[in-house]
Structures are given as C-alpha cells and as structure tokens.
Amino acid sequence: MDVTIFHNPRCGTSRNTLALIRAAGVAPRVVEYLATPPTRAELAGLGARSGLPLRDLVRSKETLFAELGLDDPAVGDAALLEAMVANPILINRPLVVTPKGVRLCRPAELVHEIL
C-alpha cells in the first residue's frame, strides 16, 4: 500500500501515528514537512482530499497562529495556505495519505480508517 505521512518527529501524536502505520505492516514514505514543506498546491490538494475545512489543517496552538492574526475567523483559505507555506510549523500534523484518502490523524488511531 502506498502511504505517505507528513511527520514531525518531535510530536508525540505524529510518532504514535507512524508507529501504528508500521505496526500494520506498512512501510510509509515519511515526509518531515518542516525540512521539506509541501507546496501551496500540495497543501490545497491535501485539504480538499481530507474533506476538512482548511482552517482545521492549521495548527492553532502555535504562537505564530495568533501573532499572524490567523485566529480571526474572517481570514480566508488563501491567506491560511500562504501562512502555512511560509511557516510550515503552522501545518497541523500528522497528515496521512493513502489510496483510501487523507486524514489528519489527531488522535493517532484515526489512521486505521484509511489503512
């Protein structure tokens, strides 16, 4: 099975999700998105395929989220995408891509839905 995880090794949920994927016998492609961030088009595609509002893919717990004014509900998807491309730390994690879809795996167990 072709599986990609957008991973932050410092994040416990991301590490747990990766472990669940491997425990299922899958060797995923691991993208450490802080070092190799997705493009604007890739992020938009991940958002569309996840079925979630783009705002759900932004990591609102990051200090930068409020500093950039992204906590204002009037900020649209284009501005959110630009902020995530410019500041990959704002990308919520882990995002997992399989032939069955895209999931933001928070909690980690959500990965089972697409394996």
Automatic annotation (TrEMBL):
GO molecular function: arsenate reductase (glutaredoxin) activity
Database matches in SUPFAM superfamilies: Thioredoxin-like
Catalytic activity: [glutaredoxin]-dithiol + arsenate + glutathione + H(+) = glutathionyl-S-S-[glutaredoxin] + arsenite + H2O
Record keyword Oxidoreductase present: yes
A single GO BP: response to arsenic-containing substance
The entry's keywords: Arsenical resistance, Oxidoreductase
Enzymatic class: oxidoreductase
Signal peptide interval: none
Record EC number: 1.20.4.1
InterPro entries, alphabetized: Arsenate_reductase, Arsenate_reductase-like, Thioredoxin-like_sf
Domain of life: Bacteria
NCBIfam families xref list: arsC (TIGR00014)
UniProt family annotation: Belongs to the ArsC family.
Name this protein carries in UniProt: Arsenate reductase
